[in-house]
Amino acid sequence: MTGLSPCPGCAAGVAAAERVGHATTSPTHALVLPTIHCMGCVSTVEKVLNEQPDIAHARVNLSRRQVAITAEHGQDPTPWIQALSAAGFEAHEARDAPAQTGPNGLLLRIGIAGFAMMNVMLLSVAVWSGASESTRDLFHWVSALIALPAAIFCAEPFFASAWSALRSGRANMDVPISVAIILACGMSLHETMVGGEEAYFDAALSLTFFLLSGRYLEQRMRQTARSAAADLAALEPRRVMVLQDRAPVSRPIDDIVRDDCLWLASGSRVPVDAVLNDVSVEVDRSALTGESDPIVVHSGGALIAGDVTLSGPVEATATVAAAGSTLRRMVELAEKAEASKSVYTSLADRASQFYTPVVHGLALIAGLGWYFVDGNAHHALMVAVSTLIITCPCALGLAVPAVATVSTGRLFRAGALVKSETALERMAQVDTVVFDKTGTLSTAALRVPDLTTDELRVLKALAQASQHPLSRGLAASMDGVDAASLQDIQEITGRGIEATFKDEVVRLGAADWIGQGHGTSFQMGGRITALERQEVALPSAADAIADLESEGYRVEILSGDTPARAAAFARQMGVESVHAAMTPEAKLDHIKSLQASGAKVVMIGDGLNDTLALSEAWASMAPGSALEASQNAADLVLLGGDLSMVPHALRQAKSARRRILENFGAAATYNMISIPIAVAGLATPFLAALAMSTSSIVVTLNALRGPKRKVNS
C-alpha cells in the first residue's frame, strides 16, 4: 500500500545526515563488567580506567554493565583488564564476555536457602521445647550439616562481591552482610562443638534468604532492559555489494569509502549515506523518520543509511565512509545519552554510601566495649554478631526492589511494561511531558469516499486483504459495510493490492500505479477514485493530556510535520507549546535545552527519529506499536497503546517513591530501636535475626500499597 504524499520528516531526515554531531570522539573499545551493581562500582571503574595513561576517556553504562573506552585504535586492552582486576572488578572484552549469572541463578539459591531455613527452624523449635542435652546436641549437629553447605552456596554472591571489594581496599554493602553470615555460622558451629545451649544457624539462613530475595527483585528490574544504541547498530548491514568493473562484489561495510559505487537490490537496506545514480527508487524511510509512507527518491537525491529500497536494483554513490554515516552517528549519540542517564544514583545507592561504615563501626565499638567492661571475649563477640545481624541491611535491601516489583507488576497488569530499575524513581520527579505527534498522539487514516454500495463492498474487501497499516485502518472505519467476495487477490510490494470482482480487475494502492493522480486511489471498472488522507487523534490522547495538565504537568508536542498541521493538531489537543519540522537532532537538542533549564522531562515517542530524544530524556515512554529501537530506548512501554496509562504511570511512580521513602523511614526507626538493644547485649543472634526478618516483612507489606487507576467517564 503506497502512493501517499512524501512525509514531512523526509527533509528533516536529509538534514540529520548533515547535522548530527561530529564533535565527540567515538569509543574505540568496550569492556563488559559482569559484577558491577551500584554507582560506587561505576565511579571506581571510571576512576581506575581514566587514570590509565593510554585511555583518553572511559564511561560506564550501568544498565548494560559495559564501559566504553576511547583510546588508540587497535590498543591491547589487557592492561586495563588487569587494572580493573586489581581493583576487584571482573572485566572482559565485549566480544568474549561470559554469560552472567542472572535472576534464575539467584532463584535457585533463594529456594535452597528457604528450604534449609525452614528445616533448621523446625529443629530449633524442638530445642526450644526443652530437648535433653544429647538430643539438643544431635539437633545442633543436624542443623550444622544442613546450614553450613547451604550458607556457603547460597551466600556466594555476597562473599564474592565482598572479597573483591576488600582486595581492592574498599568496602561495599556486601561486606557487613558476609561478615554477619560468617560470624553467625562460625559461632553456631563453635557452640555446637562445645555442647552449648544455643546455636544460630537459622539466623544465618534467614539473613541469607531475605537478602537474596532483595537481590533477585533488583535483578528482575534489569531483565527487560535493552540498548537502543544496539538496535540502531543492528539496522546496519555487515556486508555491502559494491560495483567493481560493473560487477557486484561483496565487501565488509567498514571497507566502504566515499565515492564507492553501491549496488542495492530491491528490499535491501542502504548501508551508508549516498546519492542515487538511477532515475528513481522508492524507499521506506521509517527507520529514520518513523513515518510509514514510502517516498520516491529521484536521480541525484539523497539516500540515508537505514533506508530500505522498495524497488530496484539500483546504483548509488557513497557520500561518506561507513564510520561517518547518519546511522553510525545516531548510534554514538544514543550511546552517549544512555550513559548519561545511567549515572542517576538510586535512593538505595545513596543510602548505602554511609550505611556500611556505620554498621561496621557500631559492631566493632559494641564488641570492644563489652570486652573492656567484663573481659568476656565470648560475650563481646556475641554482642558484635548480634549488632551486625540486627543492623544488616535486609530492610534497606528490600526497600527499593520490593516497591519496584509490586509497582511494575501493577503497571504490567494495567498495560505498561517498565524496563529500567530506576525508571519509577525518575518518573516520580517528572514535571514536563513531551509528546511526539505522529504515531504517538495521532494516526494516519484514509477517508472513506462517496461510492456506490458495490464499490464500498469491494473497497473494504481490498483494504482487509492488505497488510498496510493505512489499509487496515480504512477497513476498520467501514464497520457497517459487508466486504465483497474477491478472487485472485495479489498484493504487489511497493504498489498496492489488486483482485478480480465479477470478472473485472479492481485495485487499491499508489495512484501512479493505478494510472491517475497522486497519493492513494481505488479503481473499479473504468472509474478511479482518489482517497483523501487525514490525521486522526488517538481516542485516549485528549483525555490523557487534560489529565496531565490538571495534575500540574507542563505538556509539549514535538513533530516532524509542517508547522500548520502541527499547530492545528495542538489546538485540537488543547496544547499551547508545539514545535514543528523537528529533525531527530532538533528533538534531542530541545530535550537537552529543557533539562538544562531545570525541567525533569518524560518523552513519549514511537519512531526511530524519537530514539535520541527518548534516550536523553530524564524518563521516557513508547507505545506498544512503536519501532523496536524506540521501545528499547524507553523506560516504559505502553503495551496496549492507551495514552491514559501515561498519567497513571506517573501517579504510580510518585506512589512508589512515597512507599520507598516510607520504607527507609521504617528501616531507620527499626534501627533506632533495635541497635541500642543489641549494643546493650540484650539480643542474642537469634533474636537479632527475628527482628531483622520482621523489619523485612514490614517493608514488603508496605510495598503492597499503591494508587488505583483513574477511569475517564
Descriptive labels:
713 residues; alpha+beta; Calcium-transporting ATPase, cytoplasmic transduction domain A; Rossmann fold; 7-stranded mixed β-sheet; 5-stranded antiparallel β-sheet
Can you walk me through this structure?
Helices cover 50% and strands 17% of the residues. It has a 7-stranded mixed beta sheet, sandwiched between helices. It has a 5-stranded antiparallel beta sheet with strand order 17-18-19-20-21. A 4-stranded antiparallel beta sheet has the order 2-3-1-4, with helices on both faces. The chain has 4 domains: 103-223 and 344-404 and 657-703, no CATH class; 237-324, Distorted Sandwich (Calcium-transporting ATPase, cytoplasmic transduction domain A); 418-442 and 538-641, Rossmann fold (3-Layer(aba) Sandwich), CATH 3.40.50.1000; 448-531, Calcium-transporting ATPase, cytoplasmic domain N (3-Layer(aba) Sandwich). Mean pLDDT is 78; it is low at 1-24, 95-101, 222-228 and 340-345. It is elongated and about 105 Å long. The chain is of the alpha+beta class and 713 residues long. The longest helix is centred in the C-terminal third of the chain and has 35 residues, at 645-679.
